[in-house]
Write a structure and sequence with these properties.
There is one protein chain. The longest helix has 18 residues, at 2-19. The chain has one domain: Immunoglobulin-like, CATH 2.60.40.420. The protein is mostly beta strands. The protein has one helix at 2-19, and strands at 27-35, 38-40, 43-46, 51-58, 68-73, 78-83, 86-93, 99-104, 117-122. Bound molecules: copper (II) ion (CU). Copper (II) ion is lined by residues 69, 105, 107, 109, 113, 116.
Length: 123
């Protein structure tokens, strides 16, 4: 009887090891628009450890010759220039604990430039 119980426990343990769900990081890919004076979407949700790929179309509007926006993630110390009239693809691993992390345009692009921001929500 003990042997049967022991064998059952061993089989149960092995099946738990083999079939337990693995929590693995994913790649999250999305499109975004950057313009005076917003990012759309302005909220990005990912899981900690995910790799995030964003194709950002930087629009040319209002000031037609305005050459540049940017996207800056202070918590990651990462930034990219976003030349207007072009789509820039950015990619990085979200090495942050769960929380809310602001991002912004860090190039002065007009009067409402301080409004050009968003938030990265890490779950
Ligand atoms: Cu700006």
């Amino acid at each position: 009887m003990r042997r049967i119980i022991l064998t059952g426990l061993i089989i149960l343990s092995l099946s738990l090891i083999v079939f337990s769900p693995k929590i693995s990081a994913a790649t999250v890919e999305m499109n975004m628009v950057a313009d005076q004076y917003y990012f759309d979407p302005e909220v990005i949700k990912v899981k900690s450890g995910d790799t995030l790929i964003i194709h950002i179309e930087s629009l040319m509007s209002e000031m037609e010759n305005f050459p540049l926006h940017s996207i800056f993630f202070p918590a990651l110390n990462k930034r990219w220039d976003l030349p207007t009239g072009k789509t820039t693809t950015i990619k990085f691993k979200v090495d942050l604990p769960p929380g809310e992390y602001p991002f912004e345009c860090d190039i002065y692009c007009g009067l409402a430039h301080p409004d050009m921001k968003g938030v990265l929500i890490v779950e």
